[in-house]
């Protein structure tokens, strides 16, 4: 009996069974490799913006947006669902982050003035894939920029104790030139009084200072401290000087000359002028009597008169 055909059939069946068993494994591997390419970190690009910060103040950035790389346009979409955010390695101690939105809050120090501070952020997607990025804080220099370019000058204002005095608007000198200018305030400048100012008010738009000096400030120069704020978040300090005089004094501080009082009749008390006038009248009276007797001699028996 020839068994060759049966043996061949059994070999073919075994090969077919082996292929059938191996087929799902091959498909599964292909899916796994395709799934690796579909990780959310490969699909999305987080976009972190900049934030302008000032020294000593909390500044919060906007939440990052996400671009879907499978489309042709640049998207401005919110974070994919179930995405979380944490600060990255090396983040500044004063930085903190909202784990849900990705908004970063940072408090700049004096050492940060004029610098750009980078705060690293780690994005974790729902499939546990991650992205790295950074939020940049541009820290304004409070004494740089416009404040460094200009010098603020107030002229001295003469005032009297108890009376309201108004200064002229300040002028500005551009320190980048050799000439000393009297320029108007740079556009957007705003004026405030320092906390140390007293008995004074200021026009926020023009810088004109109004000051009412108490009597205790008489014969002194009072400097009203002013702070000028510029649009670039820099600021400068200046003094508005007020020279204060007594209410009834001139600008030289001398007593005014007293007026001459009306003369009093003969010898009335009240002043040296009236006393001299009274003495003169008495001499004139005596002289008149003597003249009378010279012109009208009298004869008295037994008495010899000098005239």
TrEMBL record:
N-terminal signal peptide: 1-32
Record-annotated membrane-spanning stretches: 273-293
Biased composition (Low complexity): 58-68
The keyword DNA repair is annotated on this UniProt entry: no
Region spans: Disordered: 55-77, 246-271
Keywords: Membrane, Signal, Transmembrane, Transmembrane helix
Domain named Long Rib: residues: 42-139, 147-244
NCBIfam families noted in UniProt: YPDG_rpt
Name this polypeptide is given: YPDG domain-containing protein
Top-level taxonomy: Bacteria, Bacillati, Actinomycetota, Actinomycetes, Mycobacteriales
